[in-house]
Each structure stands twice: as structure tokens, then as C-alpha cells.
Amino acid sequence: MTPLLPTRRGRKGFTLVELVIVILLLGILASVVAPALIDTVGDVEVNVVLTNVDVIFDAVERYAAEHGELPVNSAINHFPEELEGYLPESLFLLPTSIGAPYDWNGPGTGVSHHGVSIEMSTDGAANATNFYARIEAAADDGDSNAGWIRTNDKTLIFILDTSGLAMGSAPPVSGS
Length: 176
Fold this sequence. Notes:
Blueprint: H1 16-67, H2 89-93, E1 99-105, E2 114-120, H3 125-139, E3 149-151, E4 155-160
Antiparallel strand pairs: 1-2, 2-4, 3-4
């Protein structure tokens, strides 16, 4: 009995049709898996920033509880000296997912609120804007002009609510 299709006896390699089918299947699989992986990486980046901000806020709150005042403002890319012993300097100076390290905005900034800010990298403006939106959606009210996370044209600002801190003569500053 003769087979309807020729057998592969004696031939080495794959036919073009077999290769095309395998490539198509791999492409379909990649198109299904890639978005899930990308979303997971984005979620991890958001969680790292939120965790680091929380650690910085804990250090600032411990400092305020012991000294009765907030640490003074630090220059961008500069570790606030008052937080030495409360916070590892390396954590504060780590670049974030949008490029810039954290910046402490303490007394002396001329603003009505104090907190941590991240300057937006001009190299990846669209990526930074997307990052801001993911942070805002994950941890705040979705409004970039209210709540404890705010943005302006170039900066993501995490506001520390100091109203519950036991500070000596320093007046509490509301973050809301």
C-alpha cells in the first residue's frame, strides 16, 4: 500500500511549511506572553519606588520623633546629612525607574508640604509619564493634583503628612 503523502525516509531537515508553522506558533505564543511580562515588570518598578518612599518616610518620621523637627531640605542628588543612621545613603541615591534619584524636600523649600520627589528624566518623557500614571493608580486617588502623590510638568512628588508627627515647636504641615 502506498502512502498518500511521501514519507520522510532518507531526508534530513524540515520542510519550509513545517518551519513556517513553528515560527507562527512561536510568534502567537510570544504575543500572548509578552504583555503579561511587561505588566509584571511595570508593577515591580512601581512597588520598588513605593517601598523606597515608605522607607524614606519612616526614617524622616523617626528623625522627627527624636529631634522635634523635620530634616532640612537637601540638594538634588544629595543625601540629607540628618538622616545618616536612619537610612542607608545608598538607598536614597539609587536611580529610580524613571532615571533620577530621590530628593528630600524638607523645610527651606518654600512649599507648604514636605516629602520626597523624583525629577523626571527628559530622555524618556513618555515612559516617565506612563510611570507616573501607574504609581498614581497603584497608590493614590488617580488625581495628580491632589492626594499624597502629585505631579507637575517634570516631577513626581510624594507628600509626607506631618500632622501626626510629635514635633517640638515646629508647626505641623498638612499634606492634603
